[in-house]
Structure formats: structure tokens, C-alpha cells
Amino acid sequence: MSGAGWNVVRCSACSTCHGHRKVGRFCPHCGQKLPEDAEIVASVATAAELRIEVALANTPEELRDMLRNRLEQNHTLFHQEETISFTGLPKLLHDATDENGVLTVKSLQPVLDKNRNSLEVQDLIDMAESQGLLVRLNSDCWQLLE
Ligand SMILES: [Zn+2]
Model-level pTM? Predict the structure, then answer.
């Protein structure tokens, strides 16, 4: 095994697989110390391959072929984040405000639902606050800045 590679190691205590540069010393899932001769399920060259192999190793055998196809077609599956485009954010917020430009979690939720947005209301508000679109008025009330 070259130093550049990664191993997919199975923890003998919890049977969960995870990636390591070598064998690793502790299982990141259950915290058990890994034995020197921990089972190495696969060895791969890159972190991207490692993600796939770890995901596969933790998947029931009958589902692996399907998962492998999906993963290999779409390496970015793992990087997908459910973000809302910054251009769409002000409109969403605007739709949720009352005539005074004030919105609440309650008023924002149906707007999110309508837009089939899977973000949590609170996450959206945090995002908007961090971008200076909203100012908190009290614990459940924000003023939209325009
Ligand atoms: Zn474990």
C-alpha cells in the first residue's frame, strides 16, 4: 500500500466501515480501538473513491450495485448542499413579510413549503441575517431590510 492511498476499514466492534490513511486507531463511529489487524475491506487511491467505497461497504449487499452506479455517475452527490440561490432569497423573504416588512417563522414556513424548499426556516433566517437581509426584532420576529 503506497502512502498516498486510503483504506476502507471495518470496525470489528460495530461492523461499520470508515476510511483511514492506514488502519487508524479508533473507530469514528463507536470509538472502539481498532486492532492492528483490523479488516481492510478495500484500498483506494483517492479520497473521492474512498467516499464511494465507504458508502458501499456500509450498504447492504443487495443494494450495492444500484448505489455504485449512482455514485459513480455522480461524484458530486456527496457535495450537494441544499442551498437556495442568493437571488431567490430576498423574494422568498419578501413573500413572507406582512405590510410592515416583518416576518416570523410562522409566516415564512408556508412560503418555503410553496417553493418546495427543503431548508429549515431557521436556517434560512440565519442565512438571511448573516447577509444583512434581515434584522431580528425579537425572538420570533424579523424586519426585512430593503
Ligand atoms: Zn466501530
Answer: 0.46
